[in-house]
Specification:
Layout lengths: L7 H13 L5 H12 L5 H13 L3 E8 L7 E7 L1 H21 L11
Antiparallel strand pairs: 1-2
């Protein structure tokens, strides 16, 4: 498990929420995970991760306006909290530090050190 118990999938969901901006709802997050991370994730897994992230205070949500396309149902939109954004920034810093220490990687997976 990653920094402060952040699982890889949770990190990807947080990044997907951040990348989607104001339009971060289930289907957009699912599509972002597939297109950008190659993860074909079910909605159940995504909403489970969002629920865990919400309980940890890393994301918050709001209901959007009803739309005729959805039969009048409203979308739940997600946004990172300041704590979620800070955790992502720290995770990125940690990964970049480790990559810098690892040195260049050659095609067979060995480092250039």
């Amino acid at each position: 498990m990653g920094l402060k118990g952040l699982r890889e999938f949770e990190e990807l969901v947080l990044l997907s929420v951040l990348a989607a901006g104001d339009d971060a709802y289930g289907a957009v997050i699912q599509n972002t995970l597939l297109e950008e991370a190659g993860r074909n994730s079910g909605m159940g897994a995504i909403y489970t991760a969002l629920d865990r992230l919400s309980q940890r205070g890393l994301v918050t949500s709001r209901l959007g306006e009803p739309t005729p396309v959805r039969g009048g149902r409203r979308k739940r939109h997600y946004i990172l909290t300041p704590a979620g954004l800070a955790l992502l920034a720290e995770t990125r810093r940690q990964r970049e530090t480790l990559w810098a220490k690892a040195g260049p990687v050659v095609m067979d997976g060995r480092t250039g050190k």
